[in-house]
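Action item from last week, closing it out:
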Amino acid sequence: MMSPNAFAERYVALWNETDPQARRRKVDELYSPDAVYIFYRRDPFRGREAIAEQVTYTADLYHPMGYVFRPAYTAIGHHNLVRFNWAMVHRDTGDLQMAGQNVVALDENGLIVEDYQFHDRIPTAFRYNDGFDETGKVTRKASPIPVAAGQ
C-alpha cells in the first residue's frame, strides 16, 4: 500500500487532469465501481460515471480561470481510511482561493469506496456561484463572478 501522501498526490492529480480521457482513466484507477463521493453542496455521486462527471464539471469551472489543486502533504492513514488536505491556488501567482480536506475509505484493493469532501475556505477572488440551489440540484451553469480588488 502506498503512503498517505502519495495517495493524496494521485488524488489531487485527478482533479488537475486536463485531458478528458486521461481524467476518466484516473477515476477508474482511484475509485471502486460503486464508490460514493459526498460533496457538501450536492447529493452523493454514486459510481464512477457520476464521479467522473463531477470531476469534469470542476475542471471546466476552475481550469479556465487558472486554478489548480495542490496536496498539503499532511495526509494520515488509519486502517482503511486516509485523511488529507488540499488547496486550490492560481497556477501563475500561487494565490490561495480554496482549501479543504477529504476523508476516503478504501477497499482491500486500495480503491476508494467512500470519499467525503470538506471545505475549510471558499474563494474570495470571485463570488462562488457553482450553479447549485440549496437542495444540491444544478439549476444554472456555474459562472463564478470575479470580485474587483477592494470589494
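Closing note: The beta strands are 31-39, 45-46, 67-71, 76-78, 81-90, 96-106, 112-121, 126-127, 145-146.
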